[in-house]
Hints:
The complex is a heterodimer. Chain A has nine helices and six strands. By secondary structure, chain A is of the alpha/beta class. Chain A folds into two domains: 6-54, Helicase, Ruva Protein, domain 3, CATH 1.10.8; 64-205, 3-Layer(aba) Sandwich (Dna Topoisomerase Vi A Subunit, Chain: A, domain 2), CATH 3.40.1360. Chain A starts with 5 loop residues before the first helix and ends with a helix. Chain B has a domain at 1-116 and 302-375: 3-Layer(aba) Sandwich (Rossmann fold), CATH 3.40.50. Chain B has helices at residues 39-51, 126-129, 132-146, 148-169, 174-217, 237-243, 245-251, 272-275, 278-300, 317-326, 342-349, 371-374; strands at residues 4-12, 19-23, 28-33, 70-79, 82-91, 97-100, 103-104, 117-120, 224-229, 262-267, 270-271, 305-308, 335-339, 356-362, 365-369. Chain B is α/β, with parallel strands linked by helices. The chains are: A alpha/beta, B alpha/beta. The interface between A and B is medium-sized, with 17 and 20 residues.
Amino acid sequence: MNFPSKLIEDAVNAFASLPGIGKKTALRLTLNLLKREEHEVNAFLSSLQKMKANVGYCKSCNNISDAQECEICTNKQRNHQLICIVADFRDVIAVESTNQFRGVYHVLGGLISPMDGIGPNDLNLENLVDRITKNEATEILLALATTVEGDTTNFYIYRKLKDVNIKISTIARGMAVGEDIEYTDEVTLGRSIINRVPFENTFSSK
Amino acid sequence: MLELYLEKISLLYFKNYFSTEVNFSNQVNIIFGNNGEGKTNMLDAIHYLCLTKSFLNFSDVQNIHPDSNSFLIKGVFNKNEITNEIVCSVEKEQKKVIKKNKKNYEKFAEHIGQFPLVVISPLDFFLINEGSDYRRRFLDGMLSQLNSNYLENLVQYNKVLAQRNSLLKTKQNLNSIEGLLDVYDFQLGQLGNKILEERVKFLEEFINLCNQIYLVLSGNKEIIALEYQGSFASDQLETELVNSRNKDLQIGYTTIGPHKDDLKFLLNNMPIKKFASQGQQKSFLISLKLAQYSIFKNHLNIKPILLLDDFHDKLDASRVGRLIDLLNPQDFGQIFITDTDEKKLIHHFEGKSRDFKLFNLENSTVNEVSFKTLT
């Protein structure tokens, strides 16, 4: 692509460095900004700058946070003895939107995967044991992806905590709600049969 | 037992075929013609319809006629009196499409197994001459089609294995990765022990069938054996992985596990690769494939389609005769046979009350010929 202006070319390249944005989309976004009023563009840029300068990570749970500690960790209403372990902050949003969880989180920042260059030391695992002690936690809920990397991370945490007296649970694996038996894949259906639950549990949910 | 046969096939720009349509017998179909006329390609087209890919190790694009940008294979199968139209089309720079009764498949894996097929071809010699991965793939292929749980375990095993190997390749010292190796060795141990257990259980039935078939083929003269060569003791994979950590770390990959196991083929207690004639090797390979056929038939309750490429390949007349006796209509469904010499072949079928059709291939066109014109 040839540009009549070096300045536009730089802006296009900056947009194109974002994931999911190709050269053509980048050009469209650039031209859109070019047509806008100067104060609009300034507001746009300063919102990005403020975001980058001020967003940080919660010092207890490693969730995205504007303050030193996130809103969930500072909330006295929540059960600090129940800690849910998730891979990244998007999973916090997902679990929060269920409205079924009133404990606190521990965000790992990824899953163990040597193929992607991520080892246990790259995850936020160092302070987990301290946190369990400090919170007098009684249960750890593992809410990680049901992939090989998720399983490996689950086992790694399980082994790390084997000398800590705490209940370790994981989210249920099986049939999706509202799904027909005939359209469920064999592996999922097979798991659901092996891990079947007492019927009372299906309607006595809190 | 469910009936399965291919009623007709149409080919458009597949390999050396421009446009061809053939109606088949539901029992024996003999395709003859000179070298290079496309006998094997016809079998490959059938293979495409059943298993979505070529058995000749060609890529999809290599199978397109040089004058075209795409090929199309259409087949009408009769499965238990219900007709199913299967279409496979490949276009350059496009994704391959498989349709059943005009409906696209999202995953080809859903198609595989619905129209089971076994192929016997000169390429089978790979199983004897090449490395252990060919033999594992043969074994795993059979087990995966019969047992989806096995396939799931195998896929998981390979994923964990890839992670463990990546970790070993980083060449860190053992102390710093020991914690993570504990986890991988535990996971591989769980999965690998199950894989070994299933393989051993399956081979018991399979080896027995191979022996019986080989005895018939050789006229009760020779005894074959298949031995599973494990790289670890059953139920001990985790412990053995822990013990081989130092070695694995030096080499940079995992040296034991089901991915390193092999099958040993023996004839009268000697390795087949070195001590058997080509005819004996061929008989052995036919026994493997017919045992596979028999296992599919029993487990899936359907008679698979059988492809026999280059029928007289390496076999003497008495073994060919015994093979044809084995392929009787009680035990086998639809069969496709290719050969260069029709006279030699149909002589074996004379006097046997079987329905069969003969096809002559010349200049890339298929003509059905009547039995009488040849005798």
